[in-house]
Automatic annotation (TrEMBL):
UniProtKB keywords: Cell membrane, Membrane, Transmembrane, Transmembrane helix
Main subcellular location of this protein, as a coarse class: membrane
Xref: InterPro entries: ABC_transp_permease
Protein name: Sugar ABC transporter permease
TM stretches of this protein: 12-29, 49-70, 91-113, 158-175, 205-228, 278-304
Signal peptide stretch: none
Family matches, as Pfam families: BPD_transp_2 (PF02653)
Residue runs in coiled coils: none
CDD domains: TM_PBP1_transp_TpRbsC_like
Localization (cell): Cell membrane
Membrane topology annotation: Multi-pass membrane protein
Amino acid sequence: MDFGTIVEILDSAVRLGTPLLLACLAGLFSERAGIFDIGLEGKMLMAAFFSGAVAAVTGSAWLGLLAGVGGSMSLAMVHGLASITFRGNQLISGVAVNFLASGFTVLIAQSWFQQGGRTPQLSGHARFEPITLPGASAVKDVPVIGPLYSNLISGHTILVYVAFAMVPLTWWVLFRTRFGLRLRAVGENPESVDTAGVSVIRLRYTAVAITGVLAGLAGTYLATGLAAGFVKEMTAGRGYIALAALIFAKWRPVPALGATMLFGLLEAISNRYPNIDLGVVTLPIQFMQAVPYILTVVILAGFIGKAIPPRAGGQPYVKER
């Protein structure tokens, strides 16, 4: 394997890991505030559909982005209403969101476009175009540095750079601001936050809204950046993988970056090498495609160290009178 091939695999890993990173950060805000969100998959799917549909009709990826975030936010508010206001079971609410999005997107896509639950193929300004960073062409032929900068760092869509910028921003918001301190406190001990005169309900709704925006970006990227339109069930379990990555990262933003890129790398390798010959045995394409999901099960089973979630996670808050 030469250096150029390694760079190509890493470039593919970044592209495939980006929606996982955005979804993982989305779940991070929600779960740090004490709201478990199994519904990331549904939010991403809804965002992917509306972004693809609006971009196809208007020819604008930016309008598609607004529509995608709006679709995700609508499901986030449904989940917030069920979990926070009505104090329902958060896991059941999240599963319901996933089922709702799964059926709704196919039904509306077929009604609007009559293409078997798909949106029309996107092209031109209906997709987010790759951005060439300054100097990428000039250093392209420089050994090592050139391919890394021109092929790995440069040439991605704006949503990829937004996803990576969100990692330090999320860390700063959660660990260096008053809002972040209160948000984390709500997930650990909401009674103390309420005693201090801060609204637990408002903080949790804010966290759920941020989750909706980030999951919306993830779904939009799938339809208008990574692919060229919406396809039935195109999230393909990425919402669940993002949750596994969040547990793997122990609810911290910087390790979340590493975890999601690891999943992206595994998927990139499986795409690049469908069959791997180990000499004694040849791993078939089906096994390579299943590797990211196998790792998800391993992480969720607790084999990668003990991950302790926020103490008040999954528990509706009832204000004492």
